[in-house]
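Sample entry was shown:

___
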Amino acid sequence: MSGQAYDALLVLSFGGPEQRDDVIPFLENVLRGRNVPRERMLEVAEHYYHFGGKSPINDQNRELIAALKDELERNGLRLPVYWGNRNWHPFLADTLREMQADGVKRALAFATSVFSSYSGCRQYLEDIDRGRSEVGAGAPEIHKLRTFYNHPLFIEAMADRLRAALNQIPSGREARLLFTAHSVPVAMSQSSEYLSQLNESCRLVAESAGRADWQLVFQSRSGPPGQPWLEPDIGDVLRAMASGESVVVVPIGFISDHMEVLYDLDTEARDIAAERGIHLVRAATAGVHPKFIAMIRELISERMGLCAARAIGVFGPHHDACDPACCPAPARRPSSTTSDSSPRAIAQR
């Protein structure tokens, strides 16, 4: 089996503030060039202040990178692992400069996003192109690893997380099963495979855990009320449930317990459940589950021609290279609250 030679792995992520003083500069960075009222930005800042001003995503990425280094070393893949962010230190362009100085010529990139969409895939490709342009001549060549929503090891990892959550439901009680993901404008979902991939992942995970009944719901919606976004919202679903019911919430759309999980689910959704008298159990994200880490190593190996690409379900393995027309950027309007690039939608990481 043929494959290309690569000399490094780059972990691509969103970034987040490390301390209280970072919050406003971070949000200004995220929202630069967008017409967002400052009071709205300050509203989002309060979500970070609720947790001491520190986003959990950075420590989670450090843990992911440490686990990846061990996994690669154990399996004979001697690739240095670098880390670059879209919106906060370490910035991607700075990481690419470091890679260039270290002699890296061609690297694979793992983006911390599961499903195809503009912000989850295309924008990372744009980030890479922009970062390489900033570095200039001699910038490392970067190839993004494929989407993995139906990789068997991702499904197994999430099924393990679901089973662990179901075990927290008292014996003899039935629990509703809700999978949750980031809402996006309907128009954006229609120009990507976001919904079809989500539904396939939910089905595969539920069936692997012995459940045929489940519902896909959404969270972190933003934008003006008149613009259609993917529904139903998890808060609305919880409010419609009867007191005394139990529910297991699986954040299938996120790979780690970052701010959108801790605030939108563990704070807001849990408060709604408590008010309604609903017993809510939130499943863990993939995080550093051993099967998830093994999946990333397998994605690297397949791209290097060391193993065959794997997928389960009704779709095959996703393509390595994205079509230039897929997951297009959202049309920008006078207010940035018209796309999933609005502050609530993208800043809570």
